[in-house]
Structure formats: structure tokens, C-alpha cells
Amino acid sequence: MSTSLIRHTRPDAAEDRGSADAQAEAGVEDRVHAAITAALLAGKLRPGMPLRERSLAEAFDCTRGAVRKVLARLGAEGKLDLEPNRGAFVPRPSVEDIREVYSARRAVEVGIVATLCGRLSAEQLARLTQHVEAEEAAFHAHRREASARLAGGFHALLTEMVGSADLLAFVQRLIAKTELYKALYDPEEYIECAPTEHRELVEALKTPCVQATIDMITTHLNDIERRVVEQAIRAEEVPDVKAIFAAGLKRP
């Protein structure tokens, strides 16, 4: 082989190796991203918990650089809080934060169900019913992460049926926040409510009774917000040290 040919082939080979390395790195980052997201939605990571680059790199057997990129991505998605010179932390939303996001969801989703009520096609209703069946299957199989993802997906599917890409993107951002809040604070026993209430909502959407459907979605979101807020308030409570030790210090 001539020297000229060698000179022309080597850059191509280097580019191929570089492309393969980039694809492998992206695959690692996607794996780490999916695992951390799953842990968040499963309620395994608690509010305020720090996520250290070194520990995660060791756990996932990858570089700290890959972990750093994933943490930055999760921060941009609102799933983690990134603090300069301190690192990444599981969000600790305030009660006000929680109420603000649920208020936005109510305002938007009331309009969505009002638009769709009595106007959905047979195909659209079938898609919604199939989605609820998947929610129920995930719940009965005790797959917490899948239950959380499908619960949020139901509301995204309703929004998609309105036909506005901008509206869907906005609602998906709100859903992502409330999914996280629910995973952080809502007790596991309350997951069952989502598929049951979603099935009832699908039935209501078949009718032209707009106000009844609006009342249903409002109550649905109100109930979830109330439970999440109650748990968030409990998490913020500081134990009364005097009360803890008072009983033991009393003289007989």
C-alpha cells in the first residue's frame, strides 16, 4: 500500500473510532440518566439528599465526567437542584412551590377537558382506555416507577389530543414537576387512586357534560395536591426536643 493511500485512510479510521467512542459515552450517560430518574420516581431518593459524582461514578462504573453531564441534564430538566461549589441535590420543594405548580396544572387542564368533552373520536377513547389499562397493570404488579410515569402520561395524552405542540410541551414540564413532588412526598398507598380516577374521567369525557368533567379533573388534582402538601408539611416539621424528653425526666 502506498504512503499516499495510508495518509488518506488514517484520518477516516480516527473519525470512526471517535464516533464509536462518542456513541458509547452517550449510551453510558443515557443509562445513568434513566437509573437516577427511575430512583427519583420510585421515591428511593429523599428530599435534600446529595448526589456525589464520585459515588455515582463508582456505582455505575463510569467516569465522573459522564456523571457530571447527566447531573447537569437532570438539573436542566428540573429533576435535581444544582448548587455552585456544592453539587447536585434531590429537590426539596417548599409548600408554596408545590401549590404553585398544581395551580398551574388545574388552570390548564380544566381548559383541556372542556375542549375535549364529548368531542373525542372512538379511536382516541380507545387509546385513553388502553393507557388506563396499562396504569392498572403497573399498579397491580407493584411497579411504582411505571405507575408514576403512566399516571403523568395519561394527562400528557389528553393534552396531545388538543392538537397543540406548544401546549403539550408546557404541560409536560408541569407534569414532570408534579411527578417528582408526588414521588418525594406522596405515600405509596395512594398510587391506586390514579388509574381508578383516570378511568372515571375517560367515561366522563364520552359525554357532553362539561361542568361535571371539569369538577372531576379539579377534584382529582386537588386531592393529589392535598396529600403531597400534607406530607411536605410533615417533612418540614422540627421535632419538639422538650416534648421528646419531658416524659422521661418527670419524677415518679
TrEMBL record:
Domain HTH gntR-type: 26-93
Keyword Mitochondrion (UniProt): no
Basic and acidic residues compositional bias, start-end: 9-19
Region described as Disordered: spans on this chain: 1-26
Keywords from the UniProt entry: DNA-binding, Transcription, Transcription regulation
Record field: transmembrane: none
GO molecular function, one term: DNA binding
PROSITE patterns: HTH_GNTR
Protein name: GntR family transcriptional regulator
